[in-house]
Amino acid sequence: MSSIPPGTFFIVSKLNGRVLNVKGSSIENAAPIVVWSKKPSDNQNHEKVLDVKGNKIEKNGRMAARE
User: Fold this and answer.
1) Percent above pLDDT 70 for the chain
2) pTM here?
3) DSSP string, 2-41
4) What is residue 12's DSSP assignment?
5) What are the boundaries of the region Disordered (predicted)?
């Protein structure tokens, strides 16, 4: 994953263009994952951060999702 630049990203469906989100911006274990239409505002919580091991980490928390 060294070819991915640092920063935040959106996980976007190729099927419908919607993005993954964690319901209620939760940082709890087993929080539900939902899909939403991407909003143009920077304060939305759809953004994800990739760590050096390739895990997806919530921008608002420290929870990681493994593939």
Assistant:
1) 54
2) 0.49
3) TTSPSSEE--B-TTT--EEEEGGG--STTPPEEEEPPPS-
4) B
5) 44-67
